[in-house]
Amino acid sequence: MEGALLKWTNYLSGWQPRYFVLDNGILSYYDSQDDVGKGSKGSIKMAVCEIKVHPTDATRMELTIPGEQYFYLKAGGAAERQKWLVALGSSKACLGDSRGQKEKDPPLSTESLGRKLSELRLYCDALTQQVLDMQESTRPRDDGAPLDVERMNEASSLLRATCSQFLSTLEECMKFANARLAPELYPPSPAPLPSDFVGTKLPHSHRVRRSLSHTGVASPDRSSTASAGDISGCYRLHRNAALCPPLR
């Protein structure tokens, strides 16, 4: 895709018209369409840039590589910006899908989550447009001409790549949400007892024997009660004392 957009240059010059060309995942810009063959004034790789839309201005969008490049662009209208967003998002999705096995991304921060959500909205718009293009490419022509197979293959490949990138971005957002909500949904289990504590016998005086009755009254340990032999011995002593006459 190519066309004219306004680009923010600086506070002195403000918005200036530039001619942009999106080709093979690289967005390049020139002073005018006549300068396309003379070398670009600048470019940005869609695979590594972030696409954001302005929250209040329906014609503005931003392409940024944090800490490196910032493209602030303005289209002629909301419809034109939407076309560019679909083209840019589709290009980014294709590049993300063609990288194959991605490197593991660092944990998402709240700020990066916001950027990912913006990408999700962008991919939703791209998917909507690509589905319409796919339907259009499979619709029989009024003149009876055969279907354009090449166009159908291109539309299906683009749709598949965008779906893949959409799901990948959604998965990253879900991982972030799970990491934030897991401590609240699943509180940590209590720490296990130390290994040296397990199996330790309590002191003899602290051991009790719990009654099997429903009252649950605990009775002292067997060792704390008098034995049968002790009771019988005491009884004999008292009996003998009663039989013996008192001393005079």
Automatic annotation (TrEMBL):
Residue ranges with Polar residues bias: 213-227
PH domain location: 1-93
Main location: Golgi
Gene Ontology terms: biological process: endosome organization; receptor recycling; retrograde transport, endosome to Golgi
Membrane association type: Peripheral membrane protein
Region (Disordered): 209-230
Key words of the record: Golgi apparatus, Membrane, Phosphoprotein
Subcellular location: Golgi apparatus, trans-Golgi network membrane; Membrane
Transmembrane segments: none
Organism superkingdom: Eukaryota
One CC-aspect GO term: recycling endosome
Signal peptide span: none
InterPro entries from the UniProt entry: Boi1/Boi2-like (IPR045188), PH-like_dom_sf (IPR011993), PH_domain (IPR001849)
Name the UniProt record assigns to this protein: Pleckstrin-like proteiny domain-containing family A member 3-like
Originating organism: Alligator mississippiensis
